[in-house]
Structure formats: structure tokens, C-alpha cells
Amino acid sequence: MVKAPLSAPASLPTPGIDGLDPAWSRLVSVPSLGRTWHILDNAVANPRLTLLCVHGNPSWSFLFRNLLRDAPPDIRVIAIDQLGMGFSERSGTIRRLATRIDDLSALTAELGLTGPIVTVAHDWGGPVSLGWAIRHKRQLAGVVLMNTAVHQPVGSPAPNIIRLARSKPMLANVTVRTDAFIRGAVEMSRPRLPRPVRDGFLAPYTTAARRKAIGEFVTDIPLSPDHPSAETLDAIADGLSSLANTPALLVWGSSDPVFSDLYLHDLEDRLPHAVVHRHPKASHFVSEEVDAVGTIFAWLGTINDVAQKAQTSEPSSLATVASSETELDADVTSCAHKLVSADIKPGERVALMIPPGRDLMVVLYACWRVGVTIVLIDAGLGPAGMSAAVSAANPAHLVGIPKALAASRTLRWPGRRISVDPLSAVTSKLLGVVADLANEPATSAILPEPPGRDDQAAVVFTSGATGPSKGVRYTHRQLEAQRDALTSLYGIMADDRLVAAFAPFALYGPAMGIPSIVPDMDVARPSTLTAAALGDAAVEVDATLVFASPAALVNVLHTADTLTATHRAAFAKVRLVLSAGAPVRASLLRDVLGLFPNASAQTPYGMTECLPVANISLEEIDEAGEGDGVCCGHPLPTVEVQIRAIDESSRLGEVIVKAPHMRDGYDRLWQTEFDASKPPGWHATGDLGSLDDKGRLWIAGRLGHAIRTPAGIVGPVRIEQAIESLDGVAAAAVVGVGPHGTQCIVAVIELTTPVRSARQADLDLINRVRAVVPEDMAAVLVVPSLPVDRRHNSKIDRTRIAAWAEVGLAGGKIPKL
Fold first, then answer.
1. pLDDT tens digits for range 698-743
2. What order do you get walking across the sheet with 729-737 strand by strand?
3. pTM for this model (two decimals)
4. Residue 123: burial class (beta carbons within 10 Å; 0-12, 13-18, 19+)
5. Virtual CA dihedral for 232, 236, 239, 241, nearest 10 degrees?
6. Which of 439, 496, 735, 779 could bridge 802 with an S-S bond, Cβ 3.0-4.6 Å?
């Protein structure tokens, strides 16, 4: 270390630092310490709220400049430079954690802060601010933490970067003698921070003497119980329980190599009431990479309105299988005992990675019986999507088949591994499996009380077709309401039997009291469903109900020549065919009814966050005729639907819904949940639609896919349907190219006879398209295939197509889609 550096007085920042208003800077002398601080202060008089912002190492108050810039006029923002850091005084003495908490308390006393205060902290500013918060609970209105820690979880090593920087050969060289430590921290961000921002972080640390506290901060991290600051940090960690009634927000960059999700989950355990917004791709300086400021101010607007949900001791009906099948009931009860024996406790999360079938049903309902939250990881997300989902959900346990357990070990997914299949001792050790349910004895231990209706029941993930896959939370009450809505809507009776070619739908069978089966197919690829496989499943359960996505039904029709007389006889007993997951053509439903002569064809509209919202039959589709998009029918009696205007000149707007079976919220995505919950109690679907004069809901596309032409808002679905009515067209995507308000309409088409490469359509196709589409078309392109989602193989990725078309139409060779 640099020995005995000269102390240096506090000073104002050097002029011209990016984003820093000189009017914010002031020096504050604290006579009780004999020290002078540099702080940033927007100096709001008589504020409604004051934000007290504390940086960590190796940053300074510059980190919070955007909070000062964007603060509402009634919120005061004070961002401090800790002593020895930024432009505050260099005291020449080591200031450990306890001293820094004393320092902050002395500073706030000198400032004479009155009224409610919310602390905002990052990195090792977290423990300092929390130590202050625990001392000043009477003034404390809330706590905001970004990528920090108060405890090193047992069994986990300290971050490699910290251990390396702490090593004797490296410490002085990287933290003090050179600016390698701070440069390395700034370079963690992806994308790389702009040069002026990087220079701003470096501005106070131009000499070794000015960097002395950076090295001292690193050495003050307690990595052992005998460290001088260990007792103080432990007291802070234990003291967080006293903040149980204090609103808390955690904004986290999960790609941080220092403060990973490990520390997020530790803080969640200590502040279980905290709301979380997790950014999977953001790194250490999360507020530099994402709009953390917007999230903080949005959350501040809610903290006075937080109301505890009414809790009830009434048990969930999902904890008891409704199926009349006695053997299934017995299997579920036996499995529940095995789960308890495997040390699975009520309230924990259990990820299920089991192929659709009886094993999945048994384990799922057994989990609900013992009061755990199930996490359903859909194989349709793909390997990368599955890894992201497991990391986001952070289950305590992972129950799966050996293949899934092997993947979890290789990819380091969280959770104790439990197998549903019998394993040898060697295989169990190799996979790190702690128990297998096949060999686990069904003990006579007393099962825990069934969960209440307002307890969390499940985390399920969106398809990722219209953005990153999101975890959606449901309570038992909401899932019960969903079951009841489906039962009522389709008149499901005890003698019905379901074939579900969409795995999650099959899981409702036992809840509705009916047998259900998933046909032999790759559930991650719905288009692999063959007519024979569907027929075999219908024969096995003597089916009366069939559910399949449009892509699955298309392939069933393509392979219908493989059906036997037995299959056709089973299909004749089906009374209802359901299809959903993407817009369903009336022509497809008509063709399907050729295989199910005594069935009604219906299609529900909804989403992972709320299903069903509306429903329509083939007869009602024909009655509705042409309109602006797909007619989804009338909303269910228990569902409210409104259209939120996005353009006064257009009837189209965002569809918002409200229902008893609507999601509880998004998992660790507070900002997403907040944005999708306006007005409060509603869910903003992100769909573009309208209500006609008969109260029927029409979907014109996704809100983000609205084409904003000089003539107004245009929905893509109506135009796509018109083009898809043409002979030789398999599918169409319609997108807008150009700036909003002046966009041109481009059609991208997949033909029934595929082309080898993307190209301009021939003149005949262009003329046929223009004959059925009233709008002017800037271009008509043909491609080998359109990109679709993995889960349903039906939802077209218009965002990707629009970006591709814009590049292709700018001139030159059309790129590969």
C-alpha cells in the first residue's frame, strides 16, 4: 500500500464532468468529525421525500447524477461522496464500516434532514446505508438497494475479483498505485459505457494518494469471522429483520461478476417483503445499463399505497386432487409423503422438469399438497431460455428426469436435485442427486397443513415469442378461478376426457376432475403432432375434448391419411375441439371438423397472464365476418375488457383486462409488473385490438407491431388474413418500415411451395396481394419460412421481420432472415 499519504481537503469536482450540474455540488463541514464532505444536492425546499444516496467502491456520487436530473420537483436528492472517496476530504486514516456508518450519521445530523428519507445504495454503500437506516428507523420511509451484499452465504466463496484484488501481490498495484481496479469495474458494463461516462467515474481518482481509500475499502470487506468489520456487518445483516415494515426495492444486474444473484437471494431472504426487478443481462453498474432511475421513481410513487393482501386460512382446493380416479389420489398422497421425506418444506419453490404425463401430474399435485410453489420450466423455451428461467426463479429444489438433472448439473442450475426415476448409487452421485422419488420411502410423517388460497402456487413462464420470457406468479385462488372459468365456459362434466397437445393444459384435468392425456409428440415442437398420435391418445382415454395449437392441427391434417378406422371412431366421440396460442384461421377449424364430425370447434383468447379472456366458436367466427383482425368473441362473464387509446384518430388501442383468474404478478420484474398494471388491478396485455358494437373483441396484432402510417394506425393481422386467403400462400407477416408516423407497409410471405432464398415476389403475386389489400404496399417479399415461437410454432416474430425488411429494402442484396 502507499504509505502515509498526505491528507487532502475536500474540493468541488473538476469542471465539465459529463451529466454533472455544477449547481448540485457543495461542500459540507461536519464539526463533530472535523471533516468536510462533497455532496450533490438538488436543494429542494420542504421536500415531500428525501433520497439519501450512498455509493460503494470504487465509484462516487457521480453514480447518482441521473437521479438528481430526473427527480420530481417535490423530491430532494442528496448523493454523498464518502470520506476518502470522490471529492470529499482525504483524512489519511482508515475508515472501517462502523466508522463510515458513524460518518454518515454525523453528516445527516449536520444537514438537519427532516421528514421521511429513502436510502438508495450501491455496492458497499449498501451496508453503510443499511447501518444508517437501522439507526434512523423513525425517519426511514424506504430502502433501495442495487447490487450489494450484507453477508457471504455459507458454502460459497467470495467473488473471484475481490479475492484476487485482496491478494498481497495485487492489492496495492491494482487499487492504489494504478487505476486498474476502477477501470476494471467500469469496463464490466455491456455495452461498454460511453467515454465521457467512463471519464466521469475516473475523475476523482487521478493519483495514488487520491486512490488510497479504494484499497482500504477492498481490505475492509470481511471474509473471515475475525475481520475487524465482521461483527458490524453481521449486526447489520441481523438487523434487517427490524425493517420488516419498511418498503424495500431491489434493482439488480444479474450478470455482475461481483454481486451475483447469490447476494440478491440472500437479501430477499432477509427482506422477504421487498419488491425486485432483476435485469438478467445487466452487470455491476446496473443503473448505467438500464433505466433504474425510472424504476426507483415509479416505486416511490407506490410506497405509501402498499396494502397487505387479505390472507385467509381457507385451504386451497388444488391441494386435493379432484379426480375421481382413486389410484391417482393414492399416488399423489404417497408422493406428498416422499417429498416431505426429501426435506421439501412449505413455501419453498420446486422446479418440475418432467415430461408431460402421469408422473408430472402426480408430482405437481403432491407439491401443492405440501404447500410448495411449483416452477414450470417449459422445454419449448430451448436450452438458453430454460437456463434463464431457472436462474430467474431460483428454486430450492429441482425434481426431474435424469436427463434434466444432468443438464442442471452441467449448466449449474440452482436447487437440490431430486429424481422421479429410480437411480443407482453411482448415477445419483454422478448427478448430485439427493433423493429419488421412486426409492424414497413413503413415510408416515404427518403432512403439513394444506396451503391457503392466497398462498403462492406457481411460477409459469411466457413463451418468449414477444420479448424475453417472463416468470408469472399465481396464487392458489387465481388458479382455482382459472379452473372454474374453464369448467364453466366449456361445460366440462365428470364424464369428459381430455387429450391435450399443449402440456400445461393437460395439468388442469385432475383439477377439473377428468382424465387427461398428452399424445406422443415432442411437446417443445407442436408441429410434430401426427394424426395417428392424436388418434392413439383419443382411443386410450375415450376422448370427448381435444386441445391443440394451430401448428399441431395443421400437421394432423397433413398426416390424416395415417388414421385408422379405430382412430376415426374415437374422433367421432369428441364433442369439443379447442385451439389457441396464436390466431386460428376459420378454414383450419373447418378442415379439422372434417376429422371430428360431431364436435364444436372453439378458440379461446388469452395469455399466460390471464387465460381465458374471451372465447369464440367457428359458427360465431363465420357470423362475425371480416373485421379489423381476428374476432375473439365475447369476454367471459367474469372478465372485464377495455381498450386503452393510443391514438385519438384510431379505434384500435391496447387491450386491458381484469379477471379473478388474472396473474398475481411478474416474478422479480417489479417495473414490468408496474407498467402492466395500469390502472391498478388490471393487466395490460400488449395486444392491439378493438371492441365492436356487439361487444366482441377483435385482435389486430401486438401493440409493438402496430404500423404507424401517415393515414393512422394499421394493425397487421387483418392484412395478413387477406393475404393468407390467396392460393399458394402458407403464411404472411405484415410489418411497418420507416419512422413512426411515416411507415410503409411491407408484406413478407411464406409460400406453400417453399423458395430457396428470400427475394422480391413475382409480379403475379404482387398483383394478387394488392387486389385483396386496400392499403398501399411498399413491397412484397417471399422467404423460405417465417420465424415463429418455439412453444406454439405459430406466433410470428414481426419485430425480427421488420428489422430484416428494413435492412433489405435499404438497397443491395436481401439478407437471410
1. 999 999 999 999 989 999 999 999 999 999 999 999 999 999 999 9
2. 729-737, 744-751, 779-783, 759-760
3. 0.92
4. buried
5. -150
6. 735
Of the CA atoms within 13 Å of residue 164, those in its CB half-sphere come to 9
Q: What pLDDT digit, counting tens, does each position of 441-496 carry?
A: 777 778 999 999 999 999 999 987 666 899 999 999 999 999 999 999 999 999 99
Nearest one of 345, 95, 63, 46 to 228, comparing CA atoms: 95
Q: Where are the alpha helices (DSSP H) in 742-790?
A: 763-772
Asked if 249 and 145 count as a contact pair (C-beta separation under 8 A), the reply is yes
In 3D space, the residue among 88, 7, 9 whose CA is nearest the CA of residue 54 turns out to be: 88
Q: Band the pLDDT of 583: cuts 50, 70, 90.
A: confident
DSSP states of 783-809:
ES---B-TTTS--B-HHHHHHHHHHHH
Q: What 3-state DSSP class applies to 63?
A: helix
Q: Please report the sign of the dihedral spanned by the C-alpha atoms of residue 417, residue 423, residue 427, residue 428.
A: positive
pLDDT at 337 over 60: yes
pLDDT at 310 over 60: no
Report the alpha-carbon distance of residue 671 to residue 657 in Å, rounded: 19
Spatial separation of the C-alpha atoms in residues 131 and 118, rounded to whole Å: 13
**Banded pLDDT at 322 (limits 50, 70, 90):** low
CB 636 within 8 A of CB 696: no
Instruction: Supply 684's cell numbers.
Output: 395490460
- Cα–Cα distance measured from residue 711 to residue 645, given in angstroms and rounded to the nearest whole number: 17
55 Cβ partners below 8 Å, 6+ apart?
A: 61, 63, 64, 79, 80, 81, 82, 85, 86, 121, 122, 123, 125
- Separation of first and last alpha carbons in the chain: 56
The strand ranges marked E within 293-408 are 349-353, 373-376, 397-400
- CA-nearest of 294, 266, 293, 290 to 278 is 290
pLDDT at residue 737, as a whole number:
94
| Among the listed residues 210, 105, 221, the one whose alpha carbon sits nearest the alpha carbon of residue 158 | 221
Residues 6+ apart with CB under 8 A from 266: 149, 150, 151, 153
Residue 203 confidence (pLDDT) above 50: yes
Distance of CA 59 to CAs 93, 205, 812, Å? 19, 9, 47
- Between CA 369 and CA 389, with CA 462 as vertex, the angle to 5 degrees is 75
Residue 416 identity: R
Q: Show the cell assigned to 320.
A: 386435493
Closest CA to 720 of 737, 735, 732: 732
Peptide bond into 787 cis (omega under 30): no
Strands 729-737 and 744-751: antiparallel
| Cβ neighbour number for residue 174 with a 10 Å cutoff | 22
In sequence order, what are the residues at sequence separation of 6 or more whose Cβ sits closer than 8 angstroms to the Cβ of residue 638?
Answer: 481, 485, 659, 660, 661
3-state DSSP call for residue 391?
A: helix
pLDDT at 600 over 90: yes
Residue 175 gets which letter from DSSP? I
Other C-beta atoms lying within 10 Å of the C-beta of residue 475: 22
Counting every residue written for the chain, the total comes to 817
The C-alpha cell 383419443 sits at: 538
Give residue 377's pLDDT: 85
Complete DSSP assignment for 655-717: EEEE-TTS--EETTBHHHHHHT-SSTT-EEEEEEEEE-TTS-EEEEEEGGG-EEETTEEE-HH
pLDDT band at 696 (very low <50, low <70, confident <90, very high): very high
